[in-house]
From TrEMBL, chain A:
This is ABC transporter permease. It comes from the Bacteria. The lineage of its organism: Bacteria, Bacillati, Bacillota, Bacilli, Bacillales. It comes from Ureibacillus aquaedulcis. Keywords: Membrane, Transmembrane, Transmembrane helix. Coiled coil: none annotated.
UniProtKB/TrEMBL annotation, chain B:
InterPro entries: AAA+_ATPase (IPR003593), ABC_transporter-like_ATP-bd (IPR003439), ABC_Transporter_VariousFunc (IPR051782), P-loop_NTPase (IPR027417). The keyword rRNA processing does not apply. It comes from the Bacteria. It comes from Ureibacillus aquaedulcis. Keywords: ATP-binding, Nucleotide-binding, Transport. SMART domains: AAA. The keyword Signal does not apply. This is ABC transporter ATP-binding protein. Residues 4-234 form the ABC transporter domain. PROSITE patterns: ABC_TRANSPORTER_2. GO terms for molecular function: ATP binding.
Length: 399, 246
């Protein structure tokens, strides 16, 4: 027994160190700064909107749906690893103590999100409904109970069905959770009790089926791998995650762009760089993300100087990150041996970046139409990008 | 005519040299096998020839020029098939061929003709629009081989070509090599499959601890080791034992 508890705590510590290592970069990165701006702007708009919101606004249903949806997504964090399928096999009957710890962590780590959403919605509920403070806080208690049942049911369902047709389970729990929260917010406490009992029975039935099954290691390991991969991808936006291979997507709808590059020896690197940029998720989504953030700020913050600063900062961030990503030379690539001029790569990267930064400038400019001197935003993005490319050092090593 | 000439080449990754005063030549239409134990310096030698490592001493001439004298001519004169396939995850098979053709200044018509016959030979016609992530190790190797043969250079440098290829693939590769040889191209091939090397190579270079231990035809090697009738396997093992005695 103790043994498996130890396995869990060792894994948990390792996991936390790993998460902390990368979260440091997340909170010191440029996106964190932008996030502060965005939260500030959105918060301001929200408080302004609350002043004039109509009394007929269906706040209960919207809050219930947002929270019910989040509650239905209760993916278990088991921290199981591939070798466990072999090494933990003899301990199968003792694994329940391991899973109890795992589900405890799953519950505590995931309760925060519905909590925050609910707390953010409290001013809205106060403005639109006639709920007393006590009733509103009771809603929070209902969410805690729902989360607990959701975490256990999802784990048991995955276990019993070895991961198959999860959508059915999520829809069932989602609907029940939405109805429970809605009832709690409209004073229907007898319904709350009925729905909670239904969820409880649902969970017990699944738990009984679990007892007849061997542990579906393969499924849980896959869930873990996907979760860690997702985390590393997220962290990779802020820093370089060494063991991450950027995934590739064809993005066929952008194929027309490649026709810019004529078939000619001089265009060898352009041929390659256009495709590398468009098809590598890391590069392409970096550009999409920063362009979208820049555009949203321009759209919602109607203070020209803020729009300019953000657009320039994000233009700089996009250019420098993509320049490094496309020019730095890590592993050996065949194009190192090509009989083409060594400066071709740099010029190709410059061309690709110029095209996509002009698009970013146009997007941001369109979003800031209506502001005085809106065209300044676009000019700034292009100027900052060009200067950044020109003035920063070339990360490639000459071969 | 000499295609590749190494004269007293010394070099390695750090100051401490891995290959020492290496000298050999490869003539037109010659298939030369580079044979040696793990760590003997085969891959290092190849890296110096393709120019990803620069010699600390000595010089390497390909088609009469060194890399620093005429980079474009030097690089256009060879194609390279690495031991582990190096592909672009973001390019399809068709795009690998197109990129290679573009880089070596091959016109579109020639690209079409050459790639059609290569695709057929290596049974990859149906995979033109696939990305490498869907390829097996052997298929990846085939992509590298097709790109190399598409270029049609004076010299082919092939590192461990037979690992991961199925028997039909090996057969196709050997046929391609034979054909190119007849057209006057030269091939430098490093391998551990000694029976194949013995059968197909015109000459063999035995590398040992970064130096040329012996080189020549099979008969030359038998004489050098004083082992008449020996196979290349016998000679290889004899060389290993020599190392053990040292």
């Amino acid at each position: 027994m103790n043994n498996l508890q130890e396995v869990w705590s060792k894994r948990f510590n390792h996991y936390m160190t790993e998460v902390q290592k990368y979260m440091r970069f997340v909170f010191t990165g440029h996106l964190a700064l932008v996030l502060v701006f965005v939260i500030g702007a959105v918060g301001y708009q929200y408080s302004e909107w609350l002043k004039e919101v109509a009394g007929t606004f269906p706040a209960e249903w919207i809050v219930a749906m947002a929270i019910g949806f989040i509650l239905a997504l209760s993916r278990p964090v088991t921290l199981l690893r591939e070798p466990d399928q072999v090494y933990l096999l003899p301990l199968e009957s003792k694994m329940s103590s391991y899973f109890i710890s795992a589900l405890k962590w799953t519950f505590w780590s995931q309760t925060g999100l519905p909590f925050i959403i609910y707390i953010v919605a409290i001013p809205l509920l106060k403005a639109v409904t006639e709920l007393s403070s006590g009733q509103i806080w009771l809603g929070l208690a209902v969410i805690v109970v729902l989360k607990y049942l959701n975490v256990h049911s999802e784990f048991n369902y995955r276990y019993a069905n070895r991961g198959a047709s999860l959508a059915i389970d999520r829809i069932t729990r989602g609907v029940l959770s939405i109805l429970t929260v809605q009832s709690a917010l409209t004073d229907g406490y007898s319904y709350v009790i009925i729905f909670i009992i239904l969820l409880f029975v649902y969970n017990r039935t699944l738990a009984k089926r679990v007892k007849l099954q061997p542990i579906p290691y393969e499924h849980f390991v896959k869930v873990e791998q996907n979760r860690m991969m997702g985390f590393y991808r997220f962290a990779n936006y802020f820093t370089d995650v060494p063991h991450l291979h950027g995934s590739i997507r064809r993005r066929g709808w952008l194929n027309f762009i490649y026709s810019i590059v004529q078939y000619n020896q001089k265009n060898t690197q352009s041929y390659l760089v256009y495709r590398t940029f468009i098809r590598t998720d890391d590069h392409f989504y970096l550009w999409v993300r920063l362009t979208a953030i820049s555009g949203l700020i321009a759209l919602f913050v109607n203070i020209p100087i803020v729009t300019w600063i953000v657009a320039a900062a994000l233009g700089f961030a996009t250019t420098i990150q993509l320049k490094y990503a496309l020019l730095s030379s890590g592993d050996f690539r065949m194009d190192r041996l090509y009989p083409v001029d060594g400066s071709q790569r740099k010029n190709a990267v410059r061309k690709v970046l110029r095209l996509f930064m002009v698009i970013q400038a146009i997007v941001v400019m369109l979003c800031s139409i209506g502001q005085p001197l809106f065209f300044v935003t676009g000019i700034l993005v292009i100027a900052v990008s060009e200067l950044t490319f020109q003035m920063t050092k070339d990360p490639s090593i000459e071969y | 005519m000499t295609v590749l000439q190494l004269t007293d080449v010394t070099g390695g990754y750090t100051r401490k040299p891995v290959i020492k005063e290496l000298s050999f030549t490869i003539g037109e239409g010659e298939l030369v096998g580079l044979i040696g134990l793990n760590g003997a310096g085969k891959s290092t030698t190849i890296k110096h020839i393709i120019g990803t490592l620069l010699p600390q001493q000595g010089e390497i001439r390909l088609n009469g020029v060194t890399l620093s004298e005429d980079l474009d001519k030097y690089r256009s004169s060879f194609s390279y098939i690495p031991e582990t396939p190096v592909l672009y995850d973001e390019l399809t098979l068709r795009e690998h061929l197109e990129l290679t053709a573009m880089a070596y200044g091959i016109d579109e018509q020639t690209l079409e003709v050459r790639s059609q016959s290569l695709l057929k030979e290596f049974r990859m016609e149906k995979r033109l629009n696939w990305f490498p992530s869907h390829f097996s190790k052997g298929m990846r190797q085939k992509v590298m081989i097709m790109c190399a043969f598409l270029v049609n250079p004076q010299l082919y440098i092939i590192d461990e070509p037979f690992v991961g290829l199925d028997p039909l693939g090996i057969q196709s590769l050997l046929e391609q090599m034979d054909e190119k040889k007849k057209d006057g191209a030269s091939i430098l091939m490093s391998t551990h499959i000694l029976s194949t090397a013995e059968k197909h190579c015109d000459r063999i270079i035995l590398l040992h601890e970064g130096r040329v231990r012996a080189q020549g035809t099979m008969n030359d090697l038998r004489r050098a080791f004083q082992m008449p009738n020996a196979t290349l396997d016998d000679l290889y093992i004899a060389m290993t034992k020599e190392q053990d005695h040292e």
